[in-house]
């Protein structure tokens, strides 16, 4: 195990081959001399594996139990005592379906491994980790809900498009008629098994009751214009990019103009109020810049940022490393605790 002290060790909880984790680990070592342990939720079978030991009482018969312990394997197969960690970047806990395990071919067995790995790792960290979360798992999970985001964004003072979440055909048609058909549709949560893009609502869709009833979806006022903002707030650090695209969803085509962009102080303040309301210390925002100002679309508690760094040169990896280094110096319940 590394001889690095607890105050200078952080961990990233993620999945295998996460380039963000490796890039930030490099910068933490290079810029701050901090050891960063990458814990891959879909690869807990490395090294000694994961260990949690506890329980036992004088009332129970039989041999004495194990001494309390909690450790997880890092990507190099080394054991990481949870008590040695000052900060944890809770980036990803989902185990990709592509992950394979030697000799395991049954779908039910693979699902068992993924589910048990995820819950054992999460439970161990929640039970024994006493440092700073970036961000707390329960806060990150709750904040991903688009309905809660939109409500909180309006309360924080951000402009929010008129929105309906429904699977009632008559209500959906009335909402779209009220906006003269200028409405987009997107999933409430989506699926990791296939990419889901934002699209315009069509007359064909509105005529199909069976399709509309299948599940609730987000129907939202179409915000005109081609200026998209991708904004990153990591604690007190922030940086934004202006992306120019005529597409509703610019993500499938990254060969578009991208430049660094300075957000107004009042917009940044509203974004930080939203993070506080969601009990987050970081978030990656999607906004639209119109003739009248900035319109909030959504915030991803753990959004991707390396591609934006590649597109326009924003130093986002260094910014994230600085943020984690600062979090490692904080002893307390969470980096995402509301500001006084």
Overview in brief:
With 340 residues, this protein is α+β, with helices and mostly antiparallel strands. 31% of the residues lie in helices and 24% in strands.
Number of strands: 16
Biggest sheet strand order reads 14-13-12-15-16
Largest sheet: 5 strands, antiparallel
Average residue pLDDT: 89
Number of helices: 10
User: What fraction, in percent, of the residue positions are helical?
Assistant: 25-40%
Poorly predicted sequence stretches spanning 5 or more consecutive residues: 1-7, 332-340
Distance between the termini: 38 Å
Rg, nearest Å: 22 Å
Q: What structural class is derived from the secondary structure elements?
A: alpha+beta
Number of domains: 3
Shape: globular
Helix and strand run: EHEEEEEHEHHEHEEHHEEEEHEEHH
- Approximately how much beta-strand content do the residues carry? 15-25%
Tell me what the structure shows.
The strands form four sheets. A five-stranded antiparallel beta sheet has the order 14-13-12-15-16, with helices on both faces. Strands 2-1-6-7 form a four-stranded parallel beta sheet, with helices on one face. It has a four-stranded antiparallel beta sheet with strand order 8-11-9-10, with helices on one face. The protein is built from ten helices and 16 strands. It is 31% helix and 24% strand. The N terminus and C terminus are likely disordered. The chain is of the alpha+beta class. It has three domains: 125 residues, no CATH class; 60 residues, Dna Ligase, domain 1 (2-Layer Sandwich), CATH 3.30.1490.20; 104 residues, D-amino Acid Aminotransferase, Chain A, domain 1 (2-Layer Sandwich), CATH 3.30.470.
